[in-house]
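Predict structure. Input: MmgE/PrpD family protein, 451 residues.
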Amino acid sequence: MTDTFETVADFTLGSRVEDFPDSTLRAAALMLLDTLGITIGAGPMQAGRIARDSAAALYGAGEQGFGARMLFDGRRVSVAGAAYAAATQTDNLDGHDGYNPTKGHIGVVVVPALAALAETIGDFSGPEALAAVTIGYEVAGRAGISLHDTVSDYHTSGAWNALGVVAMAARLRGLSADQMRQAMGIAEYHGPRSQMMREIANPTMLHDGSGWGALVGVSSAVLAEKGFTGAPAITIEAEEAAPHWRDLGTFWQMEHQYVKPYPICRWAHAAIDATRALIRDNDLTHQGIAAIQVNTFRESACLFQGMPDDTSKAQYSLPFAVATMAAHGRIGVEHITGAGLSDPLVASIVERISVAEVARHSDRFPKCRCADVSITLNDGRVLASGDVHARGGPEAPMSQDEVVNKFMEFASPSLGASRAAAIRNAVLGLQASGSKFSDLGALIYDAAGRT
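Output follows.
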């Protein structure tokens, strides 16, 4: 067992709730709330329905103690199946949080794993729930950075966020350090090493691979708990990975996640924000716009062009997102689904948008997701935004009230305002010393329906 793994094991299995800063636990509660909002908002969408039905068909729980109800569905499947269904559902509404250095997403598996694992053990405190969330973020984030730093191609989040799920399962289910080590090795070996840019080039329900990351992470923990062995996880135990783990427990990645204001790929957000600011600050309407030029980084410029014909393409389309903002002043679920996909006004604006890669933006990726936008008006004037960093991260954070309002916007249509508000209050109350996870659990498994 390497020194680095011992550090990870001590942090995961030995940390007390008191060891986590209050600010970190507050951030964990906000990310939990934000992710739940996206899970709820994604519930009626086709990908979420398919994922839940497939989990019920394929991943039944055959042994006592390894079953879990699916989030906002109520059907009981295996604990791995429940995590898979919720993570896949969440992943297919691209409004969940992320972390710039990983070029990917963590909460999308952490929240489904927490809910699924909680069904297999006795009740536990609210602060312990937030500690488990934090551990998932801290371990997954460093595994992601380590993977990106040691391989040549760009893998989806499922390739590394599975290790954060293992850490959560090890803590909540009381695995030993050796069992956790075996589970980490299994999860890394079987994690979906899918190529992200293939999905960008042809957007589908695969999204960021996080459904499989959740499935692999939970399955690996159960396998190790029963005695299965795995080769050491090189993203943790390889010598070249060691520097990425040295600040574990001192630098809290949990406090540096970004929250998405829009359910669109993060790579498009800087251009959306630049367009939003130009329109707002100059009192423009779409009628006055002759052309929009977007200058952005390479990965962003690779996003889907033109009008999308399904919601997956809509969430990965930069011109469509910019046009929607110009047309409607906001981007909601209604714009990336159903009739929103054939909105004639948006289509007319898409035709006026050009996208180009600019070296200075590419050179700063992934730490800076920057873009600049120029809008040419019908009278010939040109308005330039200058370089804009996407909102929602540490550089331009959303306030707690903004995050809470976002949750209510996404959760209320499916659940009704009363149940959504109760979930909001329960999540924000988890940091209180007398709170229990069951305060939240009582509200999140039953099928959606207005109350």
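The beta strands are 67-69, 76-78, 289-296, 353-357, 370-377, 382-384, 388-389.
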